[in-house]
Each structure stands twice: as C-alpha cells, then as structure tokens.
Design the sequence.
C-alpha cells in the first residue's frame, strides 16, 4: 500500500521551479508534486511521445549501498554485496555486469511484492562492492529500513533522496541530454554511469517509466534547479507532470506499486516473471520462492492483463472485470484514457484462462457492463535503445 | 444565464433549461475525454447525479442544478468530448431539462454573484 506520511508535505529541490512554471500541485507519496502544468495532461503526454518530456521524480528513493570492508578485488566485492542483498529480492544481483541496472522486486515471505525497484552495479573498478538502488516514494521508509536491517554492519546505506532526480523521456531525450552530458548517447538502456557536470558528480541511468528511451539523472540538491533549467531551455523539452507520467506508464504496460502490485500479489501473477531469476528460483533462496515455483509450474490464480475498453467510459481502478457471461471474475487496478491510442485502456487481474489476447470481457463502470477485450501489453511499443557494441 | 457553486450553468428559455459546466470547471478538469449523459425522458431532482465528466486523470460527477425532465442530451459530446473544453458555455452543453417551476432558476447565482464566488476560491 501507498503510505502517505503524516504532517506537512515534503518538497523537492524543484518545488519552486514547478510553481514558477504554473504547475498544479498535489500531494503524492508525502510530497508536494506537480500533477500537470498549463499545457495539460493530454498534450504533455503526446509531447513526451514525440519530443522530450522533463519530469521531477525526486520524491522517489535513490540510494547507494556499499560494502563496509572491501577486499579490493572488484568481482569478489560485488559478489559479497550481492550475497547480502539477494535474500531480499527475487532478481539476479550477482549476475549484474559492471554498469548494468536490473528491475527487481522486494519480496515478503508470502511471495507478495513489497516494492518494485531498480538495482545497478557501478561500472567503475574503484566502486565495485557498491550498488545503486532506487525504490518507490510511498514505500521508501519501509524499504530502506528493511535494507538496513538485512545488511547490518556488513554494508552502509547512503540515502540520496534529498537530491534532485530528474527524468528526461522521449525520442529526442538522448540528443537533449547528450548536449549537456557528452557521451551519454552511447549508453545502452538499463545501464548507468557517473558523469561530471560543472564539477558535480551526476548519476545518469538510461531507463524510465514511459516506454520511451531516456534518462533518469540524480544530482545533488544544490544544482538540481540549474540542471532542470538547462534541460528546459532546450526547445524540444517541456515539463511534464505526474498525470502524464501515469498515462505514459499505463500505455507502456508498466505496473504502479500500490495499485497493480501489492504485498498479496506475486511477480508471476503480475506477469513479471522476467524479473524472477531462474537461478534464484531453483535455489529457492528468497522469501516466497516456493509460491513462485508453484505458480510457475501450475499456473497462478490470477494474472495481470491488458484491457482495451471497446465502448463507453474509461474503466478506472476498482472497476469489476466480468467474463462474457457477465460474471465478475476480476478487477481493474489501473485504467484511464490513453492519449496515444485515443481510447480507454486498463490493466487488471483476471483468471489466466481469460488472459489470451482477443478474449472478450466486460468492464463494469458505474454499474454498467461495457464491452472490452484483452490485449497484449505494452499497449504502445517500447522504444528502448540497446547498444549492440556493449 | 445562471450559475451554481458546483460550477454548472443554466440557461432558461421558456420552460426549457440548457445545462453545462462553466469555463472555470472545464479548466480545472483539464482535457475532457468522455461525458456520460442521461437519456431523454429521465426525470431528475436537484442534487441528484445528472452526468459524469471524465478527464484523463479522473471521473467527476455533475449534479442536477434544477429538477425536471431531460428532453435532450448533447450527442456531439460522444464523438467530441473536447468540445467541453473548447466551448464549455456554448457547444459543450450537456442536457436540456424541461422544468416545472422556473423559480428554481431565479434562485441560482447571476454572473456577478458567480464571478464574486470564483474570487473567493
């Protein structure tokens, strides 16, 4: 579940910049965040698909984990730190190549998902035995506490969520970022590097949450606004709020924690088997591994599916999913109007027997069954860049 | 034209009131992508759910500002919901309602009162 912190809303290093741009601010994950700018969600969404969108995602939880006692043997130090972290997640951390990032899931003993996160291994030889970890805003306090408890005094967690985390996404994002950080265009998708910007170290990850190519750049708070403004000065760039971020990730078929994923849903049910390491599953060396193995051989009870609403209103979170006979068989976990498709789409959980593309269903909106169809995700093809030379 | 605190407008001609949402409401909602309207013949009472307007982000209920019987719904909005943003107080109308008691409309805010109300928000 999304935990909204009590008390006054937190700000990011870019809060003043959002207000200056006319951003409509709303509480999100305990932070005062822009849901949209004067351009509006629809146009912000389409701009990102055609050009480059600039997003403040500083509410998220970037951090660095470092082995306390490094041997100096980079490979051995990486393996030692991976062995400490792997018991928390279902992914292959040991197998990360230098510079590589992997999407993985923080698991509970019941095989449910506590959070989805990114874990990266630094490229630099001197930084082996370290990991770059980015968790979700609403879950970060719990995640960081779980990490610290698991690593004890074997490793040190340094939170970087007081910094500016800036995403640049879209087909023109690479040229835009290359102009201020020469060399980044060579980076393959799902890799990260450390780059110098006017004497400050930036962590530049080629990844995102829109289905488009792009970067997420972690900068010290003091220079956050300067980088934001530098990027925004490029005519190909517009500031994009969290509203369009949500519709972009929905079209990309990417789950949102607290909605499409929670502590009762397994990665197999969530159709995220790619994030479950075969080695780890065979060794059953992470929480809930037995359930995942069972579901992978016998099939899960429910499956996250993509849905195209063929007629009627957008089906939003909580809308029942009914089979062709009108019997309720599942529920929508995210849904809305898809600007790049021009129609409503949704994702939700349904019996696996109804998971095949082309299956006819109904989504029930305000009591009315509306015809819908299961479609393959992503709804809009991903446009990630894999550098074959790397 | 008269207005409500829920940002609806009511334009009475004879005994038929045309109803829509104000420019302020349309701006606050953002891009309208779907409008659910009642069928002609439906009778509604003040405060009852009349329509649902959906933006990219959320669905919002529109409540009946007056009582009466729906005589027409704006079918243009089915294909072009964006009309609500483009011309909220003209082509973006929602429904026409035949009212039994025109005094209902007189009780609503006039443009000066509505503008003053917007100033307090």
Sequence:
């Amino acid at each position: 579940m999304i935990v909204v912190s009590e008390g006054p809303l937190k700000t990011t290093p870019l809060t003043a910049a959002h207000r200056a741009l006319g951003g409509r601010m709303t509480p999100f994950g305990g932070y005062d965040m822009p849901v949209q700018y004067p351009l509006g969600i629809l146009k912000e969404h389409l701009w990102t698909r055609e050009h480059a969108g600039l997003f403040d995602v500083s509410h998220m939880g970037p951090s660095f984990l470092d082995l306390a006692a490094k041997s100096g043997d980079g490979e051995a130090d990486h393996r030692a730190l991976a062995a400490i972290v792997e018991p928390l997640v279902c992914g292959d951390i040991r197998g990360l190549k230098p510079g590589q990032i992997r999407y993985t899931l923080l698991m509970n003993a019941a095989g449910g998902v506590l959070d989805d996160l990114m874990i990266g291994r630094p490229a630099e030889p001197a930084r082996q035995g370290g990991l770059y970890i980015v968790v979700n805003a609403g879950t970060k306090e719990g995640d960081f506490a779980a990490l610290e408890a698991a690593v004890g005094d074997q490793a040190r967690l340094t939170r970087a969520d007081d910094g500016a985390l800036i995403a640049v996404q879209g087909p023109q994002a690479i040229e835009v970022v290359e102009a201020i950080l020469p060399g980044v265009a060579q980076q393959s998708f799902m890799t990260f590097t450390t780059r110098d910007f006017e004497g400050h170290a930036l962590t530049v990850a080629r990844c995102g949450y829109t289905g488009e190519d792009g970067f997420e750049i972690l900068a010290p708070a003091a220079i956050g606004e300067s980088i934001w403004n530098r990027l925004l000065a490029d005519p190909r760039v517009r500031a994009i709020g969290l509203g369009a971020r949500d519709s972009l990730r929905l079209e990309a078929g990417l789950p949102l924690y607290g909605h499409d994923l929670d502590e009762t849903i397994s990665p197999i049910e969530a159709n995220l088997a790619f994030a479950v390491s075969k080695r780890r599953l065979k060794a059953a060396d992470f929480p809930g591994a037995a359930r995942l193995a069972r579901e992978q051989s016998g099939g899960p009870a429910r499956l996250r599916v993509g849905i195209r609403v063929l007629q009627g209103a957008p089906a939003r979170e909580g809308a029942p999913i009914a089979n062709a006979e009108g019997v309720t068989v599942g529920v929508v976990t995210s849904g809305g109007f898809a600007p790049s498709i021009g129609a409503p789409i949704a994702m939700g959980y349904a019996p696996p027997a109804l998971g095949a593309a082309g299956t006819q269903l109904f989504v029930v909106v305000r009591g009315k069954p509306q015809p819908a169809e299961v479609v393959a995700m992503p709804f809009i093809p991903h446009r990630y860049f894999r550098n074959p030379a790397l | 034209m008269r207005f409500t605190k829920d940002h609806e407008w009511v334009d009475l001609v004879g005994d038929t009131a045309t109803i829509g949402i104000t420019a302020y409401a349309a701006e606050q909602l953002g891009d309208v992508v779907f409008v659910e309207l009642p069928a002609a013949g439906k009778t509604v009472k003040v405060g009852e759910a009349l329509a649902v307007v959906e933006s990219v982000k959320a669905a919002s209920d529109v409540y009946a500002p007056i009582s009466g019987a729906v005589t027409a719904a704006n079918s243009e909005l089915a294909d072009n919901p964006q009309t609500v943003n483009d011309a909220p107080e003209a082509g973006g109308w929602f429904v026409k309602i035949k009212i039994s008691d025109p005094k209902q409309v007189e009780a609503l805010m006039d443009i000066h009162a509505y503008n003053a109300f917007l100033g307090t928000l």
Summary: Chain B touches chain A at residues 30-31, 33-34, 36, 52, 54-59 (CB under 8 Å). The first helix of chain B runs from residue 23 to 29. Strands of chain B lie at 2-3, 8-13, 16-21, 32-36, 43-44, 49-55, 59-63, 68-73, 95-98. Helices of chain B lie at 23-29, 76-79, 83-86, 103-106, 111-119.
